[in-house]
Amino acid sequence: MTKRRTRFTETMTGTVTLTGEREARPVRLDLEVRTDTVLLPWRTTRAQARGRLRVDGWEGATPVAGEMEISPLARRRIRYRLTFRRDGRTYLLDGWKSPSPRHPLTSMTVLPFTVHDEERREAGRGTVRFSLSGALLPFLASFRFPAEDPGPAQLAPRWNGRPGRTEVWYTTLTDPSTGTGVWLHHEITAPEDGSRAYAHGWVAVCPPGGPVDHARFGPEPVTPDAAGFRATDALAGPGRLRGSCGPYTWDLTEHQEGATLHTFPAWAWRRPLLPAAQIVPGGRARYTGTVRGPGTDLTLSDAPGATGRIYGHGNARRWTWLHADLGGGDVLEVVAAVARRPGLDRLPPLVFLRLRRAGRDWPRRGTRTALGWGGLGRFRAEVGLPSWTVTGRAGPRRIRVTVDQPEERTLALEYTDPDGSRAVCRNSVTADARIVLERWWGGWRPEAAWTLRGTAHAEVGER
Amino acid sequence: MNTATEGLLAALLAEEDPAAVRAVAARLDGALAAMPRTARAAMAAAARAVDVCARARHGRPLARLTPQERERTVTALASRPGTAHLMDLVKVPVLLAAGTEYHARRATPAARPVAPADPPLDCTPSAQWPDRQGADAVVVGSGAGGAIAARTLARAGLRVLVLEEGRHHPTAEFARRTPLDRFGALYRDGGASVMLGAPGVLLPTGRAVGGTTIVNSGTCYRTPDRVLARWRDSFGLPLADAPRFARQLDEVERTLTVARQPADVLGANGRLTLLGAERLGWRADTLRRNAPGCRGSCECVVGCPTGAKQSVQLSVLPDACAHGARLVTSARVDRLLVERDRPGGPRVAGVAARRPDGTAFEILAPLVVVAAGALQSPLLLRRSGLGGHPMTGRNLAVHPATSVAGRFAEPVAGTPSVLQSAGVEELHDRGILLEATAPPPGLSSFVLPGAGRALRSGLEGAGHLATLGAMIADRPGGGVTGRERAVSWYRLDPRDGRRLLDAVRAMGELLLAAGAEEVFTGVPGAPSVRSTRELDAALETVTPRQLHLSAFHPTGTVALGADARRAPADPLGRLRGVRGVLIADGSALPSCPEVNPQVTIMALALAVSEAACGAEGG
Fold it and tell me: Using CB atoms, which residue from B130, B132, B360 is nearest to A96?
């Protein structure tokens, strides 16, 4: 059975009196809490909490991070230990609720706390309260019980010998010193007609400004491997990418940096109900090693990129894909596709977009961008070349993604589906992208914007 | 104060001046205000009952009788065997109030020496304490055991918080207020804590920063070797091995600057005791005390007004605070927080406490030292769900005590004197320790015989009384029940009853040998005797229940011991059934220590807290 975790958000407001001051200041504490197990109230659960502390008179929100001990029944305590930095000093906010059957509401909603400085001297004390009228519904609605992130273990093959399946390990990365983009593609195709499955792939290297050069390996019989992809001259497994293909050789170590980014809903990867699904284990990764070939001699050190996985019945009728490393741990992944199944092929492209910012994935619901609310409010894609766009709105935010794939920096390759049909993929690992995120504050106001020049990885596929 | 009570006061004290009666009534009212509601109700009921007797006898309430009629009413009640004991109980607070009032009227206020500044304490009233706090160790109670445990843990580098239910009383406050005022403030229940049983006796305990050490007499006996041998051999306490325990006793004596009381301020009470012992050829000496530079204020039991007595708030707690310990005062600990879902069994996590206004606060700490005293520690454990051991709250040992006064021709009071000055150890091997114990000026602790004019003349002649007290090493025969309020009960062992009568005889004999004209035995049938023959005759038919008994030094309610069935705590003071709880007060003593227990409690607390922080021998 899949091990599940718990995630929720909590907001409390109240007052704090800082040591040396007579007047209490209004304070607001917003937290996102994560646990590694399902939160069961009769057990004691340790959790990680991070969020923001806003104190009247302090400029902006102060990031807080720490841990919680959630034990409302066993220990009758819900403890918060959060650290934050201010004016170059580290402070600890330590407080706990003491649930009591005599005063269930008060004791579960009132959090008295004390703030200590680095020398354990008291720097302030206060109380924040969880508002049942204002905060309860968002609190309850925020609860999620995601499956435990298997991390690099998701590089293990999904294909179990059934015909009519295709499985892909692909890695794109950018050498930050030269701006060269690298694309490693490893694929197992099991033809629908029951003929023997084969493994194949390629390596593509694109210096800044182009042109793109590439070399293919395979096809060859599938070599079973429990951890990842293996062929005679190529290996793609947890933490390691190695191979040679024509004039090219590569030997890279991979360090995944975060949780899996589920571009498609997480269930679509666990249960193959959709024609195909894609995930990015780690969300983003760093690569160290060498890539050598004609005119290419890259020695990489913590080069940004990502390894994605695709498993399904084959390629879409039309699709676009974008992986954009936005820096600072933020990343944007977009897939917009028109399926080949009868009926579905008449729909406009379904957009699957996931923006990871400050450790949070937006939009929260996996099907939000593709389906909206019963089709209303779904994200839209305008697919074309050399430029394509995706736009959409979820909650108080809207996003516009514009991708440019100049022809000289784009490589066109032919894909073969398990049913034998063919598609043309135009891929650029040195694409440009412009991403604008806005938030509604009575009017749309810019919240964040990123411009990627030659560091976006994008693809458009057509038939 | 109602007219029935004022009538009773006028009758008991043969006081005809209404203004004086009202003044005594006001003093009594002040003393009763600090006592529990039941004590106040009992006093009011007693006054009404006497009033009813007056109506039945004379057709008018007590307040409207003539002085002669009042005299007849109360003397009749005081002489009847059935009501005499009840009248004696009523007389205790009345004598305290009257003694204070008459002393204040007689004595010209002497110029008090300026009280010295106390060593600094890091004291925070609970009202100013945050609702949530963390620490390395919490000590519940700041008395003898709690203070030394706090100091030991603080010296070992732990962040220690000491929670005290009472408040901090600096020496300057003692110098400012009358003894009776201080009496109500420093004692739990205003000093009216009673042990139920046959017979019911008063068991006063202190409640302030410093615990009972602030109101004890300062007598510092080392634990007798025979007691230590019993604890080691019968109760399996290796730390009570005499040579090993001597290190802790030495350390405590050094901390408290214990020394034999010099004879210069001994006072007539002590000198007469030593004289009587010398004439009888008995072993006696001045007592070893923790009061260097004692000026003979004779107010030890209501807080030393000169700061000479080294109670723990002057000697131990300042050192603990210097090592980082902090005190939170006016903080009653509701319960220990226990985490029962810990791997390896329940573990303490801290304490939940309450301020005087009823608001709660909590402190989390992995180590909690329970040092709330033998009467309160078992209650705290019960409130925390940790009182499941059948011996928790049982095994209560006390020192049953009685006193005898001798009237001398020369004045005994009036000069500087030490409250508890000389000890007679002739009978100590038989479990009887005699100590010369003078009452504080104006506070007569001895229940004078009679009522009306007889009582009044006794009160006015109190300055000629020398008082001896005897305490008996008992067989533990009591217990403490309850969760919020301690209800203690006690059954006097027949052997201890016989010892009490022996003690009364010995004290009478000693006083007569010292030259007393008359000895007040406290025995109803023969309140005063003038020779040993009369004394023997008076004691022939007396039972221990007829004596005026009080009790001191409660111990043993959460005893240490190797036998898990008999002792709630293990030989190192760790409470069984939970991790992180240390017992370090009088309740930890396995049996009666046979001497004034402050040094014993502190040494034991030192030993267990050193063991707890791995600093033993360091």
Answer: B132
